[in-house]
Amino acid sequence: MNPLDKSLCLRGSAIAPPLFCAPMAGVTHSAYRRLVADFRGYGALFTEMLSARAVCSENLMTSPFTKRRPVEGAVFYQVRFTGTENISQTIEKLSSLEPFGIDVNLGCPAPEIRKGGGGIELFNDRARLARVLESVRRRWKGILTVKCRLGKRSETWQENFADRLKIIGECGIDAITVHPRFSDEKLKRKARWDLFPWIVSQTKLPVIANGDIVDATAPALGLLESGGCKGLMIGRMAVVKPWIFREFTGASEKVDYRDVWTRFYEYTLEDFRPEKAIGRIKEFTAYFSRNFIYGHELFRKVQSAPDLAALKSRAVDFLLASPAVEKEPSVMGI
Ligand SMILES: Cc1cc2nc3c(=O)[nH]c(=O)nc-3n(C[C@H](O)[C@H](O)[C@H](O)COP(=O)(O)O)c2cc1C
Fold this sequence. Notes:
By secondary structure, this protein is of the alpha/beta class. It has helices at 30-39, 52-57, 87-95, 111-115, 120-124, 126-139, 157-170, 196-201, 218-222, 237-240, 244-248, 257-271, 274-288, 295-303, 308-320, and strands at residues 8-10, 13-15, 19-21, 45-46, 50-51, 75-80, 101-106, 143-148, 175-178, 207-210, 231-234.
């Protein structure tokens, strides 16, 4: 049996297949989610990390960070809490969107997020972590998950990590995504897949594996089988290949690269003002260009485009010339 045939059931709702598109700041906005949804094949998508304060102040129905189309299906809204915000108001506001689930970010290592006490800093501070998770759990009765890294690298990291898993379990969280890198590790270093059996043994919660999953070959599927994980989450490679989830479920995809890129361009302009759209399109293209042997040319031409018209004509010219496709694109160094 293909391990992806097993759904992950959280609070009575099935996620099938148990494949997730990772939250990625600057990337998993409404236009990108719409594009991924065109290909289907996933169980659930994530928004990018939203600050609780922004949730309270923005119009969630129109903001491209939170807006959702029916075609997307199950979407988790990922929120960064520090414990200083109005959690009731945040949850009340998010509830108006009827999220499939809410996810609390416990892994972001970015210095500006750490300075504010969010992401990995919340994970590190056990008392504040318990207080915040209990408070969110009390107010949100739906699916509540967390996403974390391994925490601070130290001789006692395993003890600390197991302790945090215990707190997370006691707070009534429904599932946990683990990206097995320490808080100070960049994406260059390999994710520590060998730790998943141990991580799974430390908690009763379903564990979703994340980090360097790029195809449905035996090692990745092994995270579900021998590794004991209940789901797989894909980040960067799902930006290179927004159709990747269909590949995981066995469909062979004949890709029209120009059509995919142009659709992303149009979707982005529908949801963002032009001055904001240009940055989002450049960011997506940095990943998408990895599909081509000479993709650095596409990357370079698009990054230096002064405006949207130049950007589009440069990208379309490149894609119309039937560029040679990279069989196994890589996300190294992005
Ligand atoms: C551009 C970018 C933005 C990210 N933003 C977030 C975020 O908002 N929330 C989060 O939990 N993780 C974020 N991450 C981490 C990813 O969700 C994921 O854990 C990481 O990329 C490893 O998975 P991958 O090897 O499949 O890319 C981000 C990663 C990237 C590359």
